[in-house]
Amino acid sequence: MMKTDLFPGEGYVEPVKPTKFCRTCANRERWQCGGTWIQYCGVRKSKRTKNGLLKIKVTLPACALYKEENEPQNK
Predict the structure, then answer these.
(1) Cα–Cα distance between 47 and 49 in angstroms, integer?
(2) Are 58 and 39 in contact (CB under 8 A)?
(3) Between these two residues, 74 and 29, which has the higher pLDDT value?
(4) Contact between 69 and 29 (Cβ < 8 Å)
(5) Which of 8, 26, 31, 56 sits between 20 and 30 A of 50, alpha carbons compared?
(6) Which residues contact 24 (CB under 8 A, 6 or more apart)?
(7) Burial class (CB in 10 A: 0-12, 13-18, 19+), 74
(8) What is the Cα–Cα distance from 67 to 64, expressed in whole angstroms?
(9) pLDDT digits (tens, 9 = 90+) for 22-33
(10) Considering the chain, what is the average pLDDT of its residues?
(11) What SS3 class is residue 13?
(12) Residue whose C-alpha is closest to residue 22's, from 70, 53, 62
C-alpha cells in the first residue's frame, strides 16, 4: 500500500476488486452465430440486438441481478 503526501491525512486506498463476474452467472446465455459464440444476459434487455438481450463480456463484474450458477432453484 502506498501513502501519498498530496492531501494531508488521506492515504492511498486500494480499489476494490470484484469477486463475482458474468461468467459465473446463472442468467448467462450462450448463442452460436456462425462459427463464434456470443454471450448474452438472460435478464437484462437491449434494443440494439435482434434477440432483445444484452450482449455481455464474461469478464464484466456482475450486476445486481447476479445469481450463482450452483444455487438451488426455487421449487
Answers:
(1) 6
(2) yes
(3) 29
(4) no
(5) 26
(6) 62, 68, 69
(7) exposed
(8) 9
(9) 988 999 999 998
(10) 84
(11) coil
(12) 62
Q: With contact defined as beta carbons under 8 Å apart, do 3 and 11 qualify? A: yes
pLDDT above 70 for 56: yes
Question: How is residue 49 written as a grid cell?
Answer: 440486438
Taking phi over 0 as left and psi of -120 to 50 as alpha, with beta for the rest, 46 belongs to beta
As a whole number of angstroms, the distance between CA 56 and CA 47 comes to 14
Q: Which three cell numbers stand for residue 68?
A: 450463482
Question: Which cell is 36 given?
Answer: 463464434
Amino acid 72: pLDDT? 59
pLDDT value at residue 7: 63
For 58, the grid coordinates are 464474461
Find cell 492511498 and name the residue. Answer: 12
CA terminus-to-terminus distance, the chain:
47
Residues 9-28 have a mean pLDDT of 83
Task: Please give the backbone phi and psi of residue 39, each rounded to the nearest 5 degrees, phi first.
Answer: -110, 140
